[in-house]
């Protein structure tokens, strides 16, 4: 049987152990900072930056696919003012009938316009998608970032998005920094735009045919046409990615 003095000693020891545990718990970040070598801090910061980079890339991928889908389904125009209903969908009219003109009057869709449309959409939507809270609120670390700016560049077989976005994660005097995030979307938007403009030019001059296209070119892209009430509904399909650009041209109005 323990004597009264021994019991008291165990109580004191228990109190001391508990006090040490509480002290270590509340001072753990400070203790780890002193014990962990700087190279380990660099490794941790690198891992955190990799995690944030993946989060940003996921957002760019998601919003990039969204705007590509919107653009190719609306003839390159984000908010079309004139559409025709057909097959349960609204088709953007890019060659409009004017009463005193024999043929339709075409719109010109430029690569620069598409790039600006994509950039405007991404700059708006990425601010909502990118969440820095889980990185900026972590004890012991400092998170800094600047306003983002997306730049879109169309190539013959790809859309390249460069997100200029400066991010710094710090701990003590050690930091991990990244200033640009780049994503590539394998879709031939530039070629789709060129074909669309060729079709519109042909329609404005009296009617489009594929006679001027090489067999190699037509083997990479498929052009489908359907007519209804003198209007034509075009689908231009990229055989590689499956991306489908659709738009309409307006013919002479039919009256009952």
What does it look like?
- By secondary structure, the chain is of the alpha+beta class.
- The chain folds into two domains: 31-66 and 116-185; 72-109 and 188-249, no CATH class.
- The chain is built from seven helices and ten strands.
- The protein has helices at 4-26, 28-35, 38-73, 111-129, 133-136, 189-204, 215-220; strands at residues 83-86, 89-96, 105-106, 142-145, 149-154, 159-171, 174-185, 221-228, 231-238, 244-249.
- Strands 1, 2, 3, 8, 9 and 10 form a six-stranded mixed sheet that branches. Strands 4, 5, 6 and 7 form a four-stranded antiparallel sheet that branches.
- The radius of gyration is 30 Å and the shape is elongated.
- Residues 23-29 have low confidence and may be disordered.
């Amino acid at each position: 049987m323990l004597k009264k003095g021994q019991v008291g000693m165990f109580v004191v020891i228990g109190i001391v152990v508990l006090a040490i545990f509480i002290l270590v718990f509340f001072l753990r970040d400070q203790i780890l900072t002193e014990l962990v070598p700087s190279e380990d801090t660099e490794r941790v910061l690198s891992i955190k930056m990799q995690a944030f980079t993946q989060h940003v890339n996921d957002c760019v991928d998601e919003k990039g696919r969204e705007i590509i889908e919107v653009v190719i389904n609306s003839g390159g125009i984000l908010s079309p003012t004139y559409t025709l209903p057909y097959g349960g969908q609204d088709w953007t009219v890019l060659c409009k009938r004017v009463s005193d003109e024999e043929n339709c009057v075409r719109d010109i869709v430029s690569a620069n316009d598409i790039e600006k449309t994509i950039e405007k959409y991404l700059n708006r939507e990425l601010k909502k998608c990118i969440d820095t809270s889980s990185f900026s609120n972590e004890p012991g670390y400092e998170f800094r970032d600047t306003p983002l700016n997306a730049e879109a560049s169309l190539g013959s077989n790809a859309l390249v998005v460069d997100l200029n976005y400066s991010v710094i994660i710090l701990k003590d005097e050690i930091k991990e920094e990244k200033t640009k995030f780049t994503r590539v979307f394998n879709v031939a938007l530039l070629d789709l735009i060129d074909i669309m403009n060729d079709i519109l030019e042909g329609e404005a001059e009296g009617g489009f045919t594929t006679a001027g296209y090489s067999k190699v070119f037509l083997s990479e892209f498929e052009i489908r046409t359907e007519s209804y009430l003198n209007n034509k509904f075009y689908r231009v399909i990229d055989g590689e990615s499956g991306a489908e650009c659709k738009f309409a041209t307006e013919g002479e109005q039919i009256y009952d």
